[in-house]
Design a protein that fits this description.
The chain is built from 32 helices and no strands. By secondary structure, it is mostly helical. The protein starts with a helix and ends with a helix.
Length: 603
């Protein structure tokens, strides 16, 4: 019974002491959080004396520093160093006290001592590095990781940590060096490294990261000119920077040194340059591959690629010189003689038809070429229907509206529930608009406004609104009919007649909801006639006078591209891109405008 009584008294005392400690801890935390560091220090001194855990130590050290009691702080750290000799972060705590007193040399001695004591035991390394980061000394954190790496002879140890520290320091050359050192030991990690670096480049707020990577790359390539990994990374980085010319030069250098690669890098660069409208670079890359000879595995694709580039160059321009068109026609015919007219050259045949009809004025040659495509025995069903749509467009261009409509209906019927069917439906609705069947056209367009294709839905909405606005304004559809006639003349390339017709619409009334559309169409005519300054003036009027109209974002995008590509006014182009991004955030052109805006700003 006596033993039970003693045990109960002991337990009661222990519980009481524990409760008292908890009460003191809560009170100390209250004083600390409210900036009453004197009272907090007294309580933490007692708590630390009875239980020298790390939390009480850190709180007591912090109160001493806040109170300016540096001597007490040093004594506290020194006592803890004696009891915890392997805790290297305590040297950082001591150094931070000297930093508070602006005694830099003493602080540095503490920091150096901590790094010098790093050995192969990795356990304290992370704590020490974090302690350096906590006191704003990331360079010492990097030295800590490097010292641990040296002690273990593990060349990739703490790779992720060092990358993070160097990025925090803004030492992008050293950060890039870490990636390259990793690739030296694990070249199979190249794809992962590229993904990681690409993400950082996309998130970087300025050019410092890009410039650091470039410097590190150039240094490595100069030091190791035969290292394939560095050369391939240089190609990759140049593509990220849209420096397609330099990327092609590096790809050709890799091909020269490593012919076993078979020119794959050159082809890849040429194709990426082509998709980014760097047509001169793409053409040079394809020509380089063709010089390898017809037996090369990439010859066919290079031959086809060069023609696709030449097509894009001419098709993008609003006017084409007769001699340029004749030269390209000869190239296509030579390619057909060499490569044949078959399922592998279908794209070339379709492009050739476009050139002949819309640039060369030879609709019969274009129709004949597309007919040849449709007769190919192994043509895929989707390609066949795409070609039928193109053939329908040509027939409409030539004035054969009934035949064009039949082709559109065939494609729509065969593709009722997909985008190709929607595209065919839109073409037929537009044909009905051209032929003044406005009510039926609008009914079809209203259905298409729910299309899963944003482009089709947007085009359908624009044409539907154009019709509905003017059906309400003019019950006889007289002005709308004039406008549709002018639109058809524009589509058929009868530019002078179209201009006069749109002028007639403008003269029909003093005010009319079609006026903004008239300005847009007249601007398009002037662009096709290469009268770019006049086109720019018309587009500016549209944006200034009709900023709320559905054509305003179209006009801004056209103005931007005109000024960038044809009028050599990059500042005006920038202003147009910026206005589109700010004032029309839901426009379909936002992504394209942002890309062009960033590219112009980077020049």
């Amino acid at each position: 019974m006596r033993k039970v009584l003693v045990l109960a008294m002991w337990l009661a005392g222990a519980v009481g002491a524990l409760l008292a400690q908890q009460s003191d801890e809560q009170l100390a935390a209250y004083y600390y959080d409210h900036g009453e560091y004197g009272q907090a220090a007294q309580l933490y001194e007692g708590l630390y004396k009875h239980g020298a855990n790390k939390y009480y130590y850190q709180r007591l050290l912090s109160t001493y520093l806040e109170l300016g009691q540096y001597k007490d702080a040093v004594q506290l750290v020194e006592r803890r160093q004696k009891s915890q000799p392997k805790d290297l972060s305590l040297l950082v705590d001591e150094g931070s006290i000297y930093l508070r007193q602006r005694q830099e040399k003493k602080a540095v001695r503490c920091f150096d001592k901590a790094v010098d004591r790093v050995d192969a035991n990795q356990q304290p390394v992370a704590d020490l590095a974090q302690a350096f980061l906590n006191v704003g000394r990331p360079a010492y954190a990097a030295r800590t990781y490097l010292a641990a790496r040296g002690a273990t002879s593990n060349k990739t140890l703490y790779f992720n940590e060092l990358v993070g520290v160097y990025q925090q320091m803004g030492d992008y050359e050293a950060m890039t060096g870490e990636y390259f050192d990793l690739l030296d030991h694990q070249p199979g990690m190249m794809n992962s490294v590229q993904i990681s670096m690409q993400r950082m480049l996309q998130e970087a707020p300025d050019r410092r990261l890009s410039d650091g990577i470039r410097r590190a790359l150039v240094s490595r390539v100069q030091e190791h000119p035969d290292n394939k990994v560095y050369l391939e990374m240089m190609i990759w980085f140049s593509l990220q920077e849209n420096d397609f010319r330099f990327a092609l030069e590096q790809a050709e250098a890799v091909d020269a040194r490593y012919p076993d690669l078979g020119g794959g890098q050159v082809m890849r660069v040429a194709q990426i340059a082509q998709s980014n409208a760097a047509l001169d670079v793409a053409a040079d890359g394809y020509r380089y591959m063709q010089r390898k000879g017809k037996d090369d595995a990439h010859y066919f694709d290079a031959r086809k690629g060069e023609l696709e580039v030449e097509f894009a160059r001419i098709n993008h321009n609003y006017t084409v010189a007769a001699k340029d068109l004749a030269a390209l026609k000869a190239k296509y015919l030579a390619a057909f003689d060499e490569l044949g007219r078959n399922d592998r050259t279908v794209t070339l045949m379709r492009h050739y038809a476009t050139l002949m009809a819309y640039h060369g004025g030879d609709v019969q040659e274009a129709v004949s070429t597309l007919d040849d495509v449709l007769e190919l025995p192994r043509l895929k069903a989707q390609v066949r229907d795409e070609v039928k749509l193109e053939l329908g467009d040509l027939l409409l261009f030539a004035g054969q509206t009934w035949d064009a409509s039949l082709l559109y209906m065939q494609v729509e019927k065969a593709n009722k529930n997909d985008l190709l069917g929607s595209a065919a439906k839109f073409r037929n609705a537009k044909l009905s608009y051209y032929t003044h069947d406005f009510e039926w056209a609008k009914s079809q367009l209203d259905v298409l406004r729910a299309s899963t294709s944003k482009l089709i839905a947007n085009d359908a909405m624009e044409l539907s609104l154009l019709i509905s606005d003017n059906m309400e304004d003019d019950s006889t559809y007289g002005t709308l009919a004039l406008f549709a006639d002018a639109d058809l003349l524009l589509y058929r390339g009868q530019l002078d007649s179209a201009w006069e017709a749109f002028d007639a619409v403008g003269r029909a009334m003093l005010s009319h909801p079609l006026f903004d559309e008239v300005l847009m169409r007249k601007a398009q005519i002037r662009m096709k006639q290469a009268r770019y300054a006049e086109a720019d003036s018309l587009l500016k009027r549209l944006v200034d006078f009709y900023p709320e109209d559905i054509t305003a974002d179209d006009a801004l995008m056209l103005r931007a591209e005109l000024n960038e590509e044809h009028l050599a006014n990059p500042q005006t182009a920038l202003e147009c891109y910026e206005k589109l991004l700010l004032d029309y955030p839901t426009s379909l052109y936002v992504d394209r405008a942002r890309k062009r805006y960033n590219a112009l700003k980077a020049r």
